[in-house]
Specification:
With about 475 residues, the chain is of the alpha/beta class. The chain has one domain: Alkaline Phosphatase, subunit A (3-Layer(aba) Sandwich). About 35% of the residues lie in helices and about 15% in strands. The strands form six sheets. Strands 1, 5, 6, 7, 8, 9, 13, 14 and 17 form a nine-stranded mixed β-sheet that branches. Helix 3 packs antiparallel against helix 10, helix 9 packs antiparallel against helix 10 and helix 12 runs parallel beside helix 13. The chain starts with 7 loop residues before the first helix and ends in a 10-residue tail after the last helix.
């Protein structure tokens, strides 16, 4: 067969259904764009080979349980007795609000708080399973951010910038550290199969980094990876022959254009897509999980089953060597499920019932398997809520204070850090910014946030941008 008589691009177009039509179309589009991307010193471009960081790491991987919408700190983690005592009275200050229908009247919490674990950590009643893991959590009550608007606050929490188009932290980690499994992406996203939460795919964008480092969506129902399997089934020998021909054209093109470094990245993406066909389905098949494990996560309960599936998949992906897994909540009661502008009690109880048990089970499961110390689990939203009422029984957005929970990865267990004012409006003691939190995550994963950089348009970009944000590693949180 005279392979040279056909162009590489024509052949790719013909066999696109063998690897995934949509994925290949995207890669071909990037081939045509031919963008030149450089890499900083000591970091290899365009691969996911495992790499060492700047110093010895305490953790090797990370799971983000993102709770978009803004969980209410004073209703779940940060009890404020004076808030309940003064409920119905005006707040002594005229608070910054996002909506126009706030009356500056204090709203008490509808739930009682109790102290849990040997550490005596405070939790309210909607999260009993997470409360039972109190001795594993590091609770940061003094988080604050820069914007009261969901999309910008979410972007800030994910990328360190309140704007779109910047790489997410998962992209930074896979760029810097690669992946321990060359048959799977380094950064995997698990969302509700019913749809997208706020900001959609921009939340796991690699920004101006190569697409190799962006989040790859895996589904917790149906085919694990969209478009990975051909719509028309092919015999193994046919698929293998097609891949060999594809490899021939790639190598030939590289010989003719040896300085096109981005071509190497495209070839690695094609190869990864082919390997994923064999690996992903096996890794994400939960049929070999024990009945006890499935029950611990809540797989026997229709309310928790969807989120439980994603949490189990997250654990299996980490076990398989994936560097960063991002898990999103269900689209109930809305695509911003923690956004309690009205009917706060019912809305928080609804979303808590979905995520509480699986979140706690993930912590316990990783601990039981000896993986918690090397895996960072972070449970957080993008901001908090106000102590004043909105729509009579809800709370508005609050960028000045929120609570983040972290477990594993060398963070202090059973530890509460920071404080808010007497009504829970603002972080006032041991304040922690989002860039501070990012710097601390990077530190635990062996990376110096002041050194890790990516050259873009003549500037060394950094996740934390320390010269601007003053980001620091919060060593008080670390064991």
């Amino acid at each position: 067969m005279q392979l040279d008589k056909r162009t590489r691009r024509a052949w790719l177009s013909d066999i696109s259904t063998g690897i995934g039509a949509m994925a290949l179309a995207h890669l071909l589009q990037q081939d045509a764009a031919g963008e030149e991307v450089q890499s900083p010193a000591k970091l290899k471009p365009f691969d996911l080979l495992p790499r060492h960081g700047h110093h010895k790491a305490k953790a090797t991987s990370m799971i983000q349980l993102f709770q978009n919408g803004g969980p209410s700190q004073m209703d779940l983690f940060d009890p404020k007795p004076l808030l309940n005592e003064q409920a119905g009275n005006p707040h002594p200050e005229n608070l910054e609000t996002f909506q126009l229908n706030n009356k500056n009247v204090l709203l008490g919490s509808p739930w009682a708080f109790k102290k849990y674990g040997d550490c005596g950590m405070d939790f309210a009643s909607p999260l009993p399973h997470m409360a039972a893991q109190a001795d594993q959590w590091c609770m940061i009550r003094s988080m604050h951010t820069v914007n009261n608007n969901h999309p910008f606050a979410i972007s800030m929490f994910q990328s360190g910038k309140p704007f779109f188009g910047f790489p997410a932290i998962g992209s930074w980690l896979t760029y810097a550290l690669g992946s321990e499994n060359q048959n799977l992406p380094g950064y995997v996203v698990l969302r509700d199969p019913a749809g997208y939460n706020t900001s959609g795919k921009t939340v796991w964008s690699s920004g101006w980094m190569p697409a190799l480092y962006q989040g790859t969506e895996f589904s917790s129902s149906g085919n694990a990876i969209a478009y990975l399997k051909p719509s028309v089934e092919q015999k193994d020998e046919v698929r293998q022959r097609n891949l060999k021909v594809l490899e021939y054209f790639n190598r030939k093109h590289l010989q003719e254009h040896p300085l096109e470094s981005e071509l190497v990245a495209r070839m690695k993406n094609y190869q990864l897509a082919a390997r994923m066909q064999l690996e992903a389905s096996k890794i994400l098949d939960l049929s070999d999980e024990s009945e006890a494990t499935l029950k611990m996560y809540g797989m026997d309960n229709p309310t928790t089953r969807g989120y439980a599936t994603r949490c189990i998949m997250a654990r299996r992906l980490i076990e398989a060597g994936v560097r960063y897994v991002q898990v999103f909540p269900p689209l109930k009661p809305s695509f911003q499920p923690w956004d309690s502008h009205n009917d706060l009690k019912n809305q928080i109880e609804t979303i808590s019932a979905h995520v509480d048990q699986p979140s706690a089970a993930l912590v316990q499961d990783l601990k039981d398997r000896g993986l918690l110390e090397e895996t960072i689990i972070v449970w957080s939203g993008e901001f908090g809520r106000l102590p004043i009422t909105e729509n009579a029984n809800g709370r508005d957005h609050n960028r000045n204070a929120f609570t983040t929970l972290v477990a594993g990865g060398g963070f202090k267990a059973g530890f509460t850090y920071g404080a808010t004012d007497e009504f829970g409006y603002a972080a006032v003691e041991n304040r922690v910014s989002v860039p501070d939190l990012h710097a601390t995550f990077l530190h635990q994963l062996g990376l110096d946030h002041t050194v890790l950089a990516y050259p873009h348009r003549g500037r060394n970009e950094r996740l934390t941008d320390p010269e601007v944000t003053g980001a620091r590693v919060v060593k008080e949180l670390l064991g």
